[in-house]
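Chapter review: from sequence to fold.
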Amino acid sequence: MIPPDRHLRIDRNGTVATLTFDRPDKLNALTGEMSRDFLALIREISDDDEVRVVILTGAGRAFCVGGDLTLEDTFTGLGFQRELELYAETVLAILSCPKPIICRLNGDAVGWGATIALFCDVIVASSGARLGDPHVKVGLSTGDGASVIWPQLAGYARAKQFLLTGELMTANAAERFGLVNEVVDPDRLAERVHEIAQKIAAQPPLAVAMTKASVNIPLKDLVRNGMDTYIAYEIATQRHPDHRAAVNAFLESRKKR
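The token string follows.
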């Protein structure tokens, strides 16, 4: 199990396990340690015969705003490459988990946070949530799986529009473009996700697991075939001066705010 000071929480209610990113004061921005713990939890849950459905959400007002840019100096050289490889392993672990994962999108999902959300099996969003991938705004290519999942859900034209501008979209727009399943009022979000989780948990577990596996075959193939290239592109952009300048500008702007 993950210690509470590691900013990840798992709660069990019968056959449903809820996994929560628990760093609300930082909008659940992920450290390298949190990303490793998250992968470990997905693998742990995959082997837990008592769990039939997983709910993934965030504490506070955001789901997850991606990697913590204030820790940028810790992601260098081979460390940065290993972090991106960890992201690829995590995406494959989400797709391979025999338990359906429902994203309870309680707030903004940005960058790596958005990628995690979009690879879930069902996504129910709060009406106030937003989705986006601003890699380009900090001088980076999208090496965490975004360039796989966005075109698959929204179509290539729409995906390129948002990945190339780094703009955030509203939950209603995300539903309209096919990125999320449903949008509900914030006070109904937990209830609606619980309803879906219970319906899935009531089905024969092997049939559910094999159906998820069947649907995800092409997605897993895309991830496996492309991730080495996506990682190489992001590493190349991370070493370019544009990236450091963009990060410095972001951090300076944050200090002023």
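Two observations follow directly from the output. The beta strands are 8-13, 16-21, 53-58, 62-64, 101-105, 108-110, 122-126, 130-132, 168-170, 182-184. The chain is about 50% helix and 15% strand.
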